Each structure stands twice: as C-alpha cells, then as structure tokens.
Amino acid sequence: MAQLFQIHPDNPQPRLIRQAVEIIRSGGLVIYPTDSSYALGCQIGDKGAMERIRQIRQLDDKHNFTLVCRDLSEISSYARVGNQHYRMLKVLTPGPYTFIFRATKQVPRRLQHPKRKTIGIRVPDNRIVQALLEELGEPLMSSTLILPGEGEPMTDPYEMKQVLGHQVDLIIDGGYCGYEPTTVVDMEQETPAVVRVGRGDVELFDEL
C-alpha cells in the first residue's frame, strides 16, 4: 500500500522531501501536486516505473511523456531550444504549460514520440515540485493523473490512495492544486502552435 505524505504547499518539510526522493530513486512511482493538477512521476531512466504509468493510464506508444525540469538551464540539456523559443520560455516559466520540443540525446528513446522524436518539457510553479527536483538533481518523468475514461485529473489524495494505493508507492498530499491539465504548445512548428488549451493563458502567445 502506498505511503501518504502531507507536505506543506508553501513550506515543504525538508525531511519529507528527502524521504520522497529516496522512494523515487529506489524505483518508486509517486503522485505529486503541480501548479495545474496532480501528476504521476518517476525517475527519468526507470523503465519499470514508466511501464506502471502506462498501465495506470492505459497509454499507447504514441503518448508524449513530459520531463518536469527545475529551470531553463536544465531544459537545454533535454530539448533543442532555439534563441526565439528560449525568450518565450523565459516569460512563460515557471507556469502551467507543457512545451513539445525535439529531444536531445540525453532523453531515453523510449520516452520520445516514436516518429517525431519529441519530448514534453515543463517547469511547474509549485514549491513542492521545486523542492523535489532540487533534491533529486534531475528531471522527473511525468504524466497527468487522469484515469482511463475520465475527462479531468484526480484531485483528492485520499481517493487516490483508495483507487491507486496498490499501484503507486507514494502519494504526496500538497492540498488542492486544481483539475485542469496544462496548456500544451508544439514548439516544433515555425510558429508555436497550441495543441491543447488548459490552465495556461493562451492569449499570452499573441503578445510574445
């Protein structure tokens, strides 16, 4: 059965953050809050945990996984970001956006879109995630916690434990964080294209 940590959304307890990262490093699959909704996360190179995410969400091999990063400098290690896109990211991160970029060789092939060789990149504006990433020292591989057949992400950590307690290792209760997935922007186009409207403000793209 999964452990449940209650972590303060504004002042995450360092002891619990360290314990959560130990679980991730040992192959654990965690549910954690972001600035748009709860998500599933695991270590970037963990094939077993990735397959567990696929099973929970019933994802096919065309699904674009997301790397949740600390900042712009970490993004550049995993995505091919041009100067124009870099300026846009500087304005929009951290925030509730997922950006689709061509992946670098640092990204395991199984995480990339099989044909386009792309990867989702995201920098959430959430202190719990930022503390986890700082302690982990690398991105989290992530996917929004939307169960098969549902239109919105799960929001209640206690319901998550009832439904998924035997399929994940840790649930981080960081309070209510919303139920809208991120706005997804394809940065492979000559002009960035919004492919899913979510919590992020799409009108900002007209100003950039």
Description:
The chain has seven helices and ten strands. The chain is an alpha/beta fold and about 210 residues long. It has a ten-stranded mixed β-sheet with strand order 1-8-2-3-7-4-6-5-9-10, sandwiched between helices. A hairpin with a 6-residue loop joins strand 9 and strand 10. Helix 1 packs across helix 5. The termini are far apart. The mean pLDDT is about 90.
Give a brief rundown of this model.
The protein is of the alpha/beta class and 208 residues long.
Secondary-structure element series: EHEEHEHHEEHEHEEEH
- Poorly predicted runs of 5 or more residues: none
Distance N terminus to C terminus? Answer: 47 Å
> In one word, what is the shape?
globular
- The helicity comes to 25-40%
Q: Outline the biggest β-sheet.
A: 10 strands, mixed
CATH class, named Alpha Beta
> So how many helices?
7
Domain YrdC-like: 14-200
Organism: Sedimenticola thiotaurini
Protein name: Threonylcarbamoyl-AMP synthase
InterPro entries: DHBP_synth_RibB-like_a/b_dom, Sua5-like_dom, SUA5_domain
